[in-house]
């Protein structure tokens, strides 16, 4: 073994070769300040840094002082399956991680630890590694685990005082065992992907008992036999529940469930942003969301044959809970959710604080009705984004009438995936005609539009109420998706 | 009228720069806020490096382009060309730096000193990409690094983690 103490551990002085013009042949890299070297190395996988550690004594020191580890079974070797059996690769990877962790000087913290590995039922290796990094004051932990058995959140991780960010991703759904009491002591940001929870009380208590938790993401998670998913937290600021989209690619037959048979309770007085994507929950209970500022809802129907009454009920419950928000982004996967807008008397709602509304809109009449209704509900709206989705056509005809936000507040309109069909033009006409203080309307063409020059004059000739409105046209470089807006 | 500031390089060259361009630098922004930037702002950065830094800052600043509705066609094309220009510019910028590593390292230190996080990350990623997947000898050659291990030490390293050097 190499004697580490004999190597030169001195930190190089900060040197700038300011005025010199590039004629010198010195080793500029090695004399960079340590934080910059660590920044550069933070973009590398640990295996690259180990390789680079044989460059010189100083580089060896850089490796030994590196506070980030990035260990990924997929990238240590190129094309390993050509050389070894799967089991051998897993063994070799275990040896590699063990070696990396052992070769570290115990006095140097491992602030960021990223691991991609396998976990077997009869094997405690992963837990041992987590234990080591927990004792080395890990702040950011990113685990990608392909697990063949239930995974347990170890107590030494939960009580780890340094841990601020924790991301736990399973390759396919995996049961996650939570502790019987208590939660993360210092954790701020928690992200679960494809975790399966078995006990409603434990999860509720776990979130409630993590007093510093600010960001919570639960993506493609399964809430097995839950009656209610209860997220009550006085520290939580950002909450994302995402059970849509990604699930379609999943191999897991259960993963599409979402909150199908489960109620959702959110009681977070400091919640600023709330994202809900996926099949609707059975029911919604929102308490004390007075801080809410930013909401993104993409709602799918719970059943294959959506029921108008159910859908109306669910959407109304959501609107009731989020009425405070300043920013709302909304799209629905089933038209039945929009039936209620045809009879706006269902709603007693007003989005008095809403400043920015982003809507995904098809060409169905119900889409138009919902858009007009939402404008009516939002007297203080300043910015409107509309994303046109393809769907069967109804012919829109919009009656000109006073809508408070158009008369007094709406300044910016942005239209996306615009192709210039009659309905889109009708909406453009309506907004230009009634937007009395409109300052800007931007048209983003659908990608690869073949005749923007032919459509443009149709829009520019519409009468405008606002003399200062500026029409701008953009051609996207790549496909624009609703979630990106 | 845009507010202009005068930056003075370590070799006493003066650069007149718009406030919003130079405020990307947290260091200079703080100097301005503290009122320390009344006349020329002296910087410990050479004129050659400072010119490069400002090249980057101007390119970053140059993002919002707006059109007049009566000149849509012409401007739209111009804008698209400008987007391509930015990518092309970044590639050219990277290639130049890879070719002249002294400039690259001067710029790294300057971005650190001026607290330009976006430029610093861009450059660190660039250097990391140059190192990734390379063997020690290649790295030494690329960055002019002397192998200061004794033969015994080198033998020990190979014994300790020679496996890492097999591709």
Describe the structure.
- The complex is a heterodimer of chains A (485) and B (167).
- Chain A has 13 helices and 20 strands.
- In chain A, the strands form two sheets. Chain A has a 17-stranded parallel beta sheet that branches. In chain A, strands 9-11-13 form a three-stranded parallel beta sheet.
- Chain A is of the alpha/beta class.
- In chain A, helix 4 (86-103) links the parallel strand 1 (68-72) and strand 2.
- Helices cover 61% and strands 8% of the residues of chain B.
- In chain B, helix 3 (47-61) crosses helix 5.
- The termini of chain B are far apart.
- Mean pLDDT of chain B is 82; it is low at 64-75.
- At the A-B interface, helix 1, helix 2, helix 3, helix 13 and strand 20 of A face helix 4, helix 5, helix 6, helix 7 and helix 8 of B.
SSE diagram, text form:
The complex is a heterodimer of chains A (485) and B (167).
Chain A: H1 34-41, H2 46-52, H3 57-65, E1 68-72, H4 86-103, E2 112-119, H5 125-135, E3 140-147, E4 151-152, H6 155-158, E5 165-177, E6 189-197, H7 200-208, E7 215-219, E8 222-223, E9 228-232, E10 238-242, E11 263-267, E12 273-279, E13 283-287, E14 294-300, H8 308-322, E15 327-332, H9 336-342, E16 356-361, H10 365-377, E17 383-388, H11 404-408, E18 412-418, H12 422-434, E19 440-445, H13 452-460, E20 470-474
Parallel strand pairs in A: 1-2, 2-3, 3-5, 4-5, 5-6, 6-7, 6-8, 7-10, 9-11, 10-12, 11-13, 12-14, 14-15, 15-16, 16-17, 17-18, 18-19, 19-20
Helix pairs in contact in A: 8-9, 9-10
Chain B: E1 4-8, E2 14-18, H1 19-22, H2 26-33, E3 40-42, H3 47-61, H4 72-99, H5 101-113, H6 117-131, H7 136-143, H8 151-161
Parallel strand pairs in B: 1-3
Antiparallel strand pairs in B: 1-2
Instruction: Compute the separation of the termini of chain B in Å.
Output: 58 Å
Determine the structural class of chain B based on helices, strands and strand pairing. mainly alpha
Oligomer: heterodimer
**Percent in strands of chain A:** 25-35%
- The chain-level mean pLDDT of chain B equals 82
Chain pair forming the biggest interface? A-B, 56 and 60 residues
Helical percentage of chain A: 25-40%
The helix/strand class of chain A is alpha/beta
Which regions of chain A have little confidence, pLDDT < 50, spanning 5+ residues?
Answer: 1-24, 245-255
The largest sheet of chain B has its strands arranged as 2-1-3
Shape of chain B: elongated
Radius of gyration of chain A: 28 Å
Mean pLDDT of chain A: 86
Ends distance of chain A: 55 Å
| Major sheet summary line of chain A | 17 strands, parallel
